[in-house]
Each structure stands twice: as C-alpha cells, then as structure tokens.
Design a protein that fits this description.
Blueprint: H1 7-14, H2 20-30, H3 34-52, H4 61-71, H5 75-78, H6 82-109, H7 112-128, E1 137-138, H8 142-148, E2 169-177, E3 180-189, E4 192-200, E5 210-213, E6 216-223, E7 226-232, H9 236-248
Antiparallel strand pairs: 1-2, 2-3, 3-4, 4-7, 5-6, 6-7
Length: about 250
C-alpha cells in the first residue's frame, strides 16, 4: 500500500523546517514506513553528493583584466587625476574578485548541511524539554548510562559525570538527527538542561565552533572519531567549559 504521507512533509523534514511536534510525528512515521525512510535516505545522499561536488568557480585572472579595462577612465578625464582613477579601477576589480571568491569560502563556514544539522539539533533539544522526553535512562552514574547505549547505537559514547565541575550527569537517551540515530547525554547546569549529542564523525563538513539562535546556544567539537554538539539555553561560556572538560578526558 502506497504511503499517503504528503511529500512536502518529507522535504520539510529533510531541510529542518518542521517544528518540534512535526519533527516528532514524522520520526514516528519513519519507524513504520519503508517508503519514506528510503526516500529520506536518497535525499540525504543526493545532498551530500551536491555538497562534495564543489560546484563553484573562482574568479579567473581574465575576469580581473576585463574589469580593469571596463573601468578604465577615458583619456580626457584622466589628465586631471590619473592616479585616483587608476586606484578606483583596481579597487573595483578587487571587490568583484572577492565576491566571486566568497562563493567558495562561505560554504565552508556555513554549509547547507551545517544549517540543517544545527536547526535539527535545536529542535531536538526543545523536544527533549517536553514532559517525559528528556531521558530514556535516568541516572547520575556514568557506569549505568554508558552500558545502556550498548546495542542501541553503533557507537560507545564517552559518558562522563562532571558534577565536581558544575555539570552533573542526569541520564541519556536516543535521538534522531537528520535521519541518523545519535546518542544524547543529558547534563544539568544550575537550573538549565544541557544536551550533548554524540555521533560518529563521518561527515566532512567543517562545522562552526559555536552559535546562538533565539536565546539558545550550541558548541561543536570533535575528538577520537566522535562529533559532539552541546545545546542549551545556558550561557555560551558554560558550553565552552563543558567542551573543555570533554576534550581533557
């Protein structure tokens, strides 16, 4: 029987455009619909292929020469201020070259994949704050939380309790980010909740270290073949401190 789920839901999920309830509903649908799961996998594969294809072009030297020629002043007007016109032509060429070159630079700073992951991670954090969604295993003992993930994800996440540093371990759960099952470690920070998402570092996209959106902060880092992202409404320095604690282990 063909799936009756609107295709727009699949595309919105793939682009990270669904709100938290919509994301949760679609993820539940994916568990029982092989057609949508296959279509989602195909869409993600296509997006990765486009991102790795480097479909951009640097401004060639010939373009800079054409700009200089096009912006060169007429002879009648260069007699008064020849130096000024020359510098204006060079400046125009440099501006255009920089704009062309930025097409290859900015995707490494904030790629579509990074934007989608960031949006989905923020939605996952908000979804976890709903009653009954924060933890699948509730414990302050890292030796209880770590074994719970065995057989549930394809990694053994590095679970640590940082109570002595102001980040008590509260538990863990499974989450789905961009169609990938990841481990989520839950920490407290004063009266705030911090989610630390952990997954295998297979993607090649260089994520920005940190950011902020509507009062929520995130911090990415990478260690020992794992990718981490801490998300919370606590301050960014708090997340940076937690990041340092993980990197020191």
């Amino acid at each position: 029987m063909a799936c009756e789920q609107p295709k727009t839901h699949l595309h919105a999920y793939l682009d990270g455009e669904l709100d938290a309830p919509g994301m949760a509903a679609f993820e539940q649908h994916l568990e029982t619909c092989a057609d949508c799961a296959a279509a989602l996998a195909a869409g993600e594969a296509l997006r990765r292929s486009l991102e790795q294809a480097e479909l951009y072009e640097r401004a060639p030297e010939s373009l800079r020469r054409k700009v200089r020629v096009a912006t060169a002043p007429a002879p009648a007007r260069t007699s008064a201020h020849p130096g000024a016109w020359r510098w204006l032509a060079v400046a125009a060429a440099l501006v255009i070259a920089i704009l062309w070159g930025s097409r290859s630079f900015f995707p490494t700073i904030k790629s579509p994949q990074q934007a989608a992951w960031t949006t989905t991670l923020l939605d996952a954090h908000l979804r976890s704050l709903q009653p009954g969604h924060l933890t699948d295993v509730e414990s302050t003992d890292q030796h209880t939380v770590k074994p719970w993930f065995d057989g549930k994800v394809d990694i053994a996440p590095p679970v640590r309790d940082f109570s002595a540093d102001g980040f008590p371990l509260l538990g863990g759960r499974l989450d789905v980010i961009e169609g990938r099952t990841v481990a989520a470690l839950v920490y407290g920070r004063r009266k705030h909740i911090v989610n630390v998402f952990v997954w295998k570092s297979q993607d090649l996209v260089p994520y920005a270290d940190s950011g902020e959106r509507q009062g929520y902060h995130w911090a990415f880092w990478k260690k020992d073949g794992f990718r981490f992202c801490a998300v919370s409404d606590t301050s960014l320095p708090d997340l940076q401190q937690l990041k340092t604690l993980f990197l020191q282990q």
